[in-house]
Amino acid sequence: MAEDSLHREILEEHARNPQFDHPITDPTHKADFKSTKTGNICNLTVKVEEGRLVKIGMKVQGSALATASASLLFSELNELTLEEAQHIHQGIFKILLNGEINELPGDLCVYQSILHLPERHDCALLAWKALGEALAFQ
Hints:
Blueprint: H1 2-16, E1 29-34, E2 41-49, E3 52-61, H2 64-77, H3 82-98, H4 111-114, H5 121-135
Antiparallel strand pairs: 1-2, 2-3
Helix pairs in contact: 1-2, 2-5, 3-5
């Protein structure tokens, strides 16, 4: 129960104070992803230099969880290599789509709690789906 309370606090903080900026003006990759289930939208822009995510910008129109998840994506992936980002991206989907329990860095531990809320998976994956589309992650 304490873990769920901590996870809820992390999500609420990211929803109230998202870490991402609006879309960047000089992206190398971008995606405009709209959930067919909820209608939530994530406009994601990324600048990649020498195989590293050097800038990430987003605009999210959706639920508090969609905003919090986008903020988590930004705060945990900014400045990572594409390989590291793809590994984390895959880990998020393995948890929420396959129910696998695996370690994720930093505040991404909240996805262990979101696993138990299948009706919220679409919101939690919004920015991650946009990232996958922008960078052609599988």
